[in-house]
Amino acid sequence: MRTVLVVEDTPSEMELLSHYLREGGYSVVGAVTAKDALTKAIELKPNVIVTDVVMPGMSGFELCRSLKKNPETQKVPIIICTSKGQDIDRLWGMRQGADVYITKPFTREELIRAVQSVGG
To answer: Is-annotated flag, keyword Phosphoprotein (predicted)?
Structure first.
């Protein structure tokens, strides 16, 4: 079973993302902070990472940079899933190493398609 690491600090969003992914046949591991996500990404080697941008401490953009710099996680595809929907946000996210950028609100189909598009 493919594993998706979901990084989201809002409990309701975490629940929705996890629910959609499990319905799509994925195993889901959650992280509430980017720092926690870094640790879990190295330990668990997920197939895909889905992250929010606006989080306390380290942002999703910073998380992308850190994951792409680390030899153990640099090949893991990253999907940014955020309410920041302006073109500049999307451009910046892709420059930080994101493979796919989707905005909230999203549908189940959009999320699953995004994960499948990066090999998940």
So the answer is: yes
